[in-house]
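Journal club prep — side note

Before the paper discussion, L.F. wants everyone to see what a predicted structure for a comparable chain looks like in token form. Sequence:
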Amino acid sequence: MKKDGFLDHLGRPVVAVTGMGIVTSLGRGKQDNWAALTSGTSGIHAVTRFPTDGLSTRICGTVDFMDVAPVSNQLSYAFADAATREAIAESGLDGDFNGPLFLAAPPVEHEWTDRFALADEAGDNGNPANAYDGFLKVMRNRPHPDVTRTALFGSVAERLADAFGTRGLPITLSTACASGATAIQLGVDAIRQGRTDRALTVATDGSVNAEALIRFSLLSALSTQNDPPQKASKPFTKDRDGFVIAEGGAALVLESLESAIARGATVLGILKGYGEKADHFHRTRSSPDGGPAIATIQAALDDSGLDRTGIGYINAHGTSTPENDKMEYLSLSTVFGDALPGIPVSSNKSMIGHTLTAAGAVEAIFSLMTIATGTLPPTINHENPDPAIELDVVPNVKRDHQVTSVLSNSFGFGGQNACLVMTAEPA
């Protein structure tokens, strides 16, 4: 390959993916996840981690096959660690990673079990009204390092940095449902700007707990179609009623293409471009006119050097909430116009649920595997299409169709929007 082949259309280093790892409710590792996803298997099931009596939503996409304490930070670390080990092993790198770490992680706070236990120690006499004040009193009066550690936002990144020998201060970010894509974007920027030849980008979320379920339920964001659980997530259908909360982790090893080829690494795909835009419309809702999402998609295309005819497949955000699916269709139809009916669009969330902070990276891996295998994952539960959303959603059954470019959308709460464009290895 000529030297010019290592630079993109704007003269920046081309960014390659040389390792990927993943954990979702479908399984641990790329192969198990891909086999389940393309067969239309759902990982959504009844909640068993905590009591759901009296809750309107009693389903989730938790990872129940790993022996980890059901504590948010412990789960988030376990998923990140498993995904990172798989990604680095696939990359063929040995020893310390020797590059920066960008981690997408959920906001954390003290677990309810800790709060009540320490409130009891303060002598609140079982009065819930005094429980939080009692908890704070005990925390102020003497150290509780184990409790404190579970609520430190940067603790997962610090543990990963120690385990894998990353370089410099590990960066932890949380941009709602766009977080995983944002972490990848930061890794791409670090390589494009010449600050490093490689970057470790990881996204994880282990925050499925009773409090999260209640909070999202109060926002009317969750599906209440509990029986059967695997039918609840139905993006782009007329009877969609909300997303299904889920968890998991994903990791990608990014390298400059020049560095990857020089060391003989297998190139799994190219991070061709990204776009990001903020949406100040509402704390949780996306702008109904789709303006920020439209701008984000267009920015990703512009950054990649592709136009609307250059995208062969779209990995949709596709949450299954009435408003978000409508907004995403509006944004896609505005950008792609009359080309959209010819572009397959599917939602992984129909099977794995919404992995929140991890979603952007999880779906980036599935997008790259779509390119590598020539298999389009289905959107399951597409039995009652919304006539106002005219998309080829690859309904219910996978499709053999070779594509060389994918747009992956992540539109998050609070107006955090990020899109990635990925392509096959350049000739």
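L.F.'s comment for the group: The CA atoms of residues 178 and 410 lie 5 Å apart. Keep this in mind when we get to the figures.
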